[in-house]
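Report of the visiting student (M.T.), summer placement. My assignment was to run the structure pipeline on a short list of targets and document each run. The first record concerns FACT complex subunit.
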Amino acid sequence: LGIEFRESTIAITSKCTARAKKGMTFQISIGFSSLDNPDGKDDQSKVYALFIGDTIVVNENEPCTILTSSKKDISHIAIILKDDGGQDDEVDETPAIQPRRAAVEKVRADPSAPEESRQDNQKTLLRRLNERAEVRLTSQGDKVSSEKARKINNAYKSEGQLPQDPDIQDLKLYMDKRYETLILPINGTPTPFHISAIKNVSLAVEGEYIYLRINFFHPGGIGKQADTIDKENVYIKELTYRASNDKKDDVVPASNNLSHVHKLILEIQKKYKDQELERKQMEGVVKQDALSLNPSKVNPKLKDLYIRPSLANKKINGTLEAHTNGFRYTSVRGDKIDILYSNISHAFYQPCDNEMIILIHFHLKHAIVFGKRKQTDVQFYTEVGEITTDLGKHRNMHDKDDILAEQAERDLRNKLKGAFQSFIDKVVQQKNFPFEFEQPFRPLGFHGTPHRSMVLILPTTSCVVQLTEWPPFVVVLDEVELIHFERVHFQLKNFDMVFIMKDYTKKTQSIQAIPMAELDPIKNWLNSCDLCYTEGPQSLNWAKIMKTITDDLGGFFAQGGWTFLEADSEGEGGGGGGGDEDSDAEEDDYDPDEEESEEQGSESEYSAEEEDDEFEEEDSNSEESENLGTDEESGKSWSELEEEARKADAEKLEYDSDNGGRNKKKSGGGGGSSSGTLSKKRSPVTSKKRPAHSPPPTNGKKRRR
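After the run finished, the structure tokens were exported:
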């Protein structure tokens, strides 16, 4: 072996004269072609080729040492190549990861892609998406609708369960705590109502009477429970009972029964709601099989790890150990958490490069319960150095203590990365290990806000994750139907990214406030992974949209399916794509120079008209009227300009004083004669005074009388 993979001068051929000596390293390869595969399902898989290579070291007087011996499974060290013609065929989910990994590597090598080819590919993907989604969801329509139906709680299964209490016989209100049922007298008949049918109750006192009002869930009401009620039955909206509040001799007032029942209803309602909340939290929790402990003392083990979510209010470290069929985490106070291999959907290993923690994260298929809550994400991590820094502490870049601390932190990082990588290698080498540890691709990362804070979102081979801050963000790309970019507009700095799941009953997930500069790299990455995306300038109400779609799946796909998002992005023309032709034409016709010339022309016309109205005795020569402010004025000194301004102010004051005296004469009486006198004194033709609205005269060319 030389510097290159194959050196022509030292290749093992018939012309080679070099002698093998101790310490020489050789790469031995052998290839086979046209091999038969009896298990092949199609023509391409029935015939295959095989290429095997090993690296060996020559020894003296003993067999060669093979450097490429591996205990790993063949799937971890083999590269399977497929013909391009088989890309259109549907493949299993596990082999589909291999092309996606190759696509990620392609984006890392060449981040740019032609816009036209990308748009053509997206149109093809959107058409296929609608076809597959229609086939998949229409076949599951009955199943989805049956799952949406709300469970109706019956008060009693038979009349024999009705309690024999004197209050019921006396037609009083009665609360059965055992069956959580309220028995109400209606037209002389005790009628049971389960507590889940009661919306709320209220008690009011008016004069000598007390009123108990009971509101029930009914069709057309407000709330999620009202929407899921069977509308074919007849429902009671509300009932009101009245009882006297008078106290007679040795007789219990009838209102006591209403007060007592009101108190019991609130108590049973609270208990029932707590039970429903706990039941809802436990949905999706599957009882795991028992963990098969490996008695060997050489099990893969990692010590001094913290767990998230935390088991207590403070951080508690522990040990993660791999056994025959799962992991066991044991804290220092004795808590034990078991995670089976079969329950792990995706496993992630994130090293401490440019991070303050190094971690192993498990995304589970079915939730497990610890800390009194169900969890689908479990993380084990350890800190690398100080996460928080004391800004008040004076630091010097040449301080020996700081230099030693930085060196110690680098050594700790390398030590932790080696320990975690060794643990992962030992776990993967176990027999029948069902998954691989994925590592995020940092060059493809982008910043966004999936929850509350801005974080770095990192793609992996099969997911989009954020694992550094808690709660984590994990989106499995195989479960994503479509990605939609919101608020894509050239005037905005950020946009949002919405993930629509293949299961339309699941809530959409979103990443907000992504910088606009990241839009094209994200599009290239999604396009290389054959994931369909659309874009639009507005934020959409996805809860309402998904409810409308699930209510009428047939009508949704009959109208084009998800193409309404593509039409919206093309019609609005927000941000990345082009707008409509009319708007482009308007923008092309716009010329700022023309607009400026029009404004100047209108101003000159206005000034000329004003001068003609102001001085009737002067010649209306357009050349002289437009010659305001000539080059002669620009050559005057400051003293001359100040003198002209002083004279203009004096003339303005004189005109204002005359105008004030004229107003006084008008108001003094004899309006007709005084106005006639004033008109003789000050004729607008012979007077040198200017109107108040006219500009002061300039010292350019003198006007001719």
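The radius of gyration is 43 Å. Residues 638-667 form the longest helix (30 residues). I thank the supervising group for their guidance throughout the placement.
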